[in-house]
Amino acid sequence: MRITRLVSENHVQEVDGADLSLMDSLIAKYKGKSGSLIPLLQGTQHLYGYIPGPAFEKLSEATGISSADIYGVATFYAQFRLKPVGRNIIKVCHGTACHVQNANAITDALKDFLEVGDGETTADGEFTLESVACLGCCSLAPVMMIGENTYGKLSGKLAVKVIKEMKNNLCKQPQE
Amino acid sequence: MEKPKIIVGLGSCGIAAGASKTYDKLKAYQQEHAVDFELARTSCIGMCYKEPLVEIQDASGSIIYGDMTEDKVLDVVLDHLTKGIRNAEMAVKAEDMPTHEDSFFDGQVKIALRNCGYMDPESIDEAIQHEAYKAISGILKEKRPQLDIIQTMIDSGLRGRGGGGFPTGLKWKFANQNASDEKYIICNADEGDPGAFMDRSLLEGDPHAVLEGMMIGGYAIGATAGVIYCRAEYPLAIKRLNIAIGQAKEKGFLGENILGSGFNFDIYVKEGAGAFVCGEETALIASIEGKRGMPRKRPPFPAASGLWEKPTNINNVETFGNVPWIINHGAAAYAAYGTEKSKGTKVFALTGKIKHGGLVEVPMGITINDIIFKLGGGIQGDKKFKAVQLGGPSGGCIPAELGHTPVDYDSVNATGAIMGSGGMVVMDESTCMIDLAKFFLHFTQEESCGKCTFCRVGTKRMLEILERITEGKGEEEDIPKLEELAYQIKNNSLCGLGQTAPNPVLTTLKYFRHEYEAHIIDKKCPAKVCKPLLTYTIDPEKCTGCTVCGKKCPTNAIDGARKEAHTINQNICIQCGECFNVCKFEAVMVD
């Protein structure tokens, strides 16, 4: 659960080349089933990493729910993103256990190092910094999670070190 | 002799601590060396502070080793298997010898968590060996009347483990009494309290127990379908639930005409999308229906009109986990644990500044001190125990002086906190209570759905006041203002989120008023957490003039020549604490 929610301005962004036909099988799967708006939105986000603006129209046509209502649902839940995200999402845990072990220091250090605010993506599209509520490994607090990897017992410095190493590895990898 | 079995604990917390790498290491060794052992997995046994955990079962019995990271595991395992050396240093639990970690298990009674850490959660055959589906099979075979089962639940005294504490049997009775062609049973697995992971652990460790609990509830109220509403942030729990549901269907425990009894029941998992308010029953139902998760007025209660306007019963994961045990062992066996009004056991997630962080299941009525000092091993660094936070953002702080409080619904409520779902965050003297209240209020203010004005605007105003206080801009009338807002919000909000949101502020005001006053009147933070209230100075006796702090200072507030005592210019200092962090001679002082 993201603690900081998406702000409602400037976030529906048309992206060139978002291939909406990818959604067809998803829509077919839930056709005629009541209560499937949230799974549809989750499926769409799974396809694109976020919910592109034109997808709202397409979902509206498919379900008969007005795009305003769909938009209302998408903005209500913290899970849905309406902007593209970086290739790596850094989730810094701000659950109670992490908070009392100074999780703020980690977010602050990463903000400084990556030069982004909470919930923002770096200019190179590599990292998105997020605050999340409880990743459920409280005994390792404070914790952050990048992809499938969890890093525990962190300090601001250690967190920055992890990101630096990831950046170095990215540089070494051949570009696609 | 059967070959030895090595079991790696692969719950989310174990994996976070590196248990997957430990498993891979053992697997690789097994393949390369053809060593004769069976490799298996289990889930969390609750001992998070010793993860990764590896259990070895052989002719000499069972022994669990802790801290088994990939670099250490082979040494310990090979010593054990080939040389018969049992590493007493690393052992945390053994059948036939005491270990230095036994205090963590002494005093625990495992009912809901009875199988967690003792079987492979992805194998229905192992689950069946551990009594899974025994209760429902018996009920169906004997064609036990619905009201008979409900009476058993009432007699057991089981109360809702999600925090509300409403008697489960009574809840089932209401849903049973409302006639309808369709009824639903919902498992609330939207565990949203930051600092709580009891439900996750149970779902990951023993998904079949939850499914069986739902089936028994479904049979008792006359439902045909069950829905598990689970947080999307629990991918492993969702995966294991879906595996368990698939296996149960294959074995004929779920679906049409279960075990030839004529009882039809199906369960599916619905992923939540991240909204704390969806822990509230009517908001949860709206969310399953695909709407914004906003609570509605009650009555009608879900028992009369819930999901798709049909009678619906909602219970928490842990509540369902207890149900099959109660049917198998009888109401009296369950009611033998606990206090007069709070029967049975409760699972707590012990976190914060505690030595033995993890998951414990204890009989109701045990004292807070016993949990923290006996099971939890005391406070990290042997600092002073200051308070414990129970019930997350809806709960409150209980101070150390009330550590003798027994943990049961009524005693905890009397302190102003609530039992909640079981998050227990322990704090020492370095935790600022105003900062903590601000943290929780920030959370509830963000998570307020916005329907009720008092909750939407009131929590925002309270948060602003707390922010001012922690920035040193507090005024004396702030305390009465906070109290007035708190009572208004409690009285004028529709659902539990708003009704309980002010609890963290009210309890800290009740027990730590002096800390508020220190912030407001003296402009000091006694726990030295609120940065704008701190003053950094350099002790000229200890300062060696190494110049490290001066170089680090972002505002050039530190003056002093090399090898001479430095000073901090308070007019420029921004209290960032960098000098304090870098000083090797403990010369920088905070006040």
Can you summarize this structure?
Chain A is 42% helix and 10% strand.
Give an overview in words.
Chain A is 42% helix and 10% strand. In chain A, a hairpin with a 2-residue loop joins strand 3 and strand 4. With 176 residues, chain A is α+β, with helices and mostly antiparallel strands. Chain A has 2 domains: 14-76; 88-172, Glutaredoxin, CATH 3.40.30.10. Chain A contains 7 helices and 4 strands. Chain B has 591 residues and is an alpha/beta fold. Chain B folds into 5 domains: 5-101, Glutaredoxin (3-Layer(aba) Sandwich), CATH 3.40.30; 124-335, Rossmann fold (3-Layer(aba) Sandwich), CATH 3.40.50.11540; 345-428, Ubiquitin-like (UB roll) (Roll); 433-522, de novo design (two linked rop proteins) (Up-down Bundle); 535-590, Alpha-Beta Plaits, CATH 3.30.70.20. Helix content of chain B is 40%, strand content 15%. In chain B, strand 3 (54-58) and strand 4 form a beta hairpin. The interface between A and B is large, with 40 and 54 residues.
List the helices and strands and how they pair.
The complex is a heterodimer of chains A (176) and B (591).
Chain A: H1 24-30, H2 37-48, H3 53-63, H4 67-76, E1 88-93, H5 96-100, H6 103-114, E2 127-132, E3 144-146, E4 149-151, H7 156-172
Parallel strand pairs in A: 1-2
Antiparallel strand pairs in A: 1-3, 3-4
Helix pairs in contact in A: 6-7
Chain B: E1 5-9, H1 12-16, H2 19-33, E2 38-42, E3 54-58, E4 61-65, H3 70-83, E5 91-94, H4 102-105, H5 124-129, H6 134-142, H7 146-156, H8 168-177, E6 184-189, H9 198-205, H10 207-221, E7 225-230, H11 235-250, E8 266-271, H12 281-288, E9 312-316, H13 317-329, H14 331-335, E10 345-352, E11 358-363, H15 368-375, E12 385-390, E13 396-399, H16 409-415, E14 423-428, H17 433-447, H18 453-470, H19 478-491, H20 496-500, H21 503-511, H22 513-522, E15 536-538, H23 548-552, E16 558-559, E17 567-568, H24 578-582, E18 588-590
Parallel strand pairs in B: 1-2, 6-7, 6-9, 7-8, 10-14
Antiparallel strand pairs in B: 1-3, 3-4, 4-5, 10-11, 12-13, 12-14, 15-18, 16-17
Helix pairs in contact in B: 2-3, 7-8, 7-10, 9-11, 10-13, 17-18, 18-19, 19-21
